[in-house]
Amino acid sequence: xxxxxxxxxxxxxxxxxxxxxxxxxxxxxxxxxxxxxxxxxxxxxxxxxxxxxxxxxxxxxxxxxxxxxxxxxxxxxxxxxxxxxxxxxxxxxxxxxxxxxxxxxxxxxxxxxxxxxxxxxxxxxxxxxxxxxxxxxxxxxxxxxxxxxxxxxxxxxxxxxxxxxxxxxxxxxxxxxxxxxxxxxxxxxxxxxxxxxxxxxxxxxxxxxxxxxxxxxxxxxxxxxxxxxxxxxxxxxxxxxxxxxxxxxxxxxxxxxxxxxxxxxxxxxxxxxxxxxxxxxxxxxxxxxxxxxxxxxxxxxxxxxxxxxxxxxxxxxxxxxxxxxxxxxxxxxxxxxxxxxxxxxxxxxxxxxxxxxxxxxxxxxxxxxxxxxxxxxxxxxxxxxxxxxxxxxxxxxxxxxxxxx
Length: 405
Hints:
Elements (H helix, E strand, L loop, with lengths): L1 E2 L8 H35 L4 H29 L1 H19 L5 H29 L2 H33 L1 H22 L3 E2 L7 H14 L1 H31 L4 H17 L1 H11 L1 H18 L6 H17 L3 H9 L5 H29 L2 H22 L11
């Protein structure tokens, strides 16, 4: 794709554009998204869903993301990244306002899939926007700053959601989240630079041919690096599911769980600058491996938490681990993506990673139903450790090599 302005320029205008077109909308959307995440799970419990059904809400969210990944990637090549970002935010807003009006757990599940589709389109458009506007030498820091602001939004979202739900109920949480998404849309419309795709006038068959070419040409990347990313995303999904479920199982209320969730993301947020420096100065694996090891350790320790303080300590450790990996999946994907067919590549890359995001809640919910919630924690941690070994021994460092691993 080509930009109407010089690609990868580093002037004050481009930095201002990143601030207003990427960073601010990322913060607003993250606050909304994480409020919705905790609301989906705990509202489902309030509607008399069991732990497995509640966890399935996040699994359905993941399925929606999976379904959207490749079409969103093809849409970027055809319609431009700005339009795909906007389409994703429209879906998020519709979902939030729809969820505020339902008391059916089944309809809530359908809206969770729409939520996932919106997230997938928004994130894919945003990754492509950064890849088009920022050079590889600054990309790790740029993505880490963006991810740090996302975590700042995640710090505010769950806590505010828990307090608001306790006072006014979960429908109000969904309404406020929808308003935040609409505000993010305004920033995108006003400040994002339109990108003119090279293939805008080409038939859809050209995009399908490019997709098949990307799948064949980069099969090893998707198989090897992708398997490590799947396990990382599975643990991240596990953290989102297990903290609220474990909190509910030990008798904590929505405000307590929201506070724990937010403080965990507070530690996450503080790691964005160190993580960015690690990514750009030491390497991508120096960020990914500690992230996976510490996150796995936190999940393994969760069954030992029996009160607010215990769960808070485990959640803070999870935040530290996840913070090491701030922006790692997006950075690896943009490093590995080719200039020609970038949208298709990143669509498949997100699809691979989102297998972990989508399967994680179902995986955890099934284990919790068949065995115990503690078993789900331990098994998820074990899978994460296997992924860390793949990252250590099989994935090539991409900091200086924008080539397949």
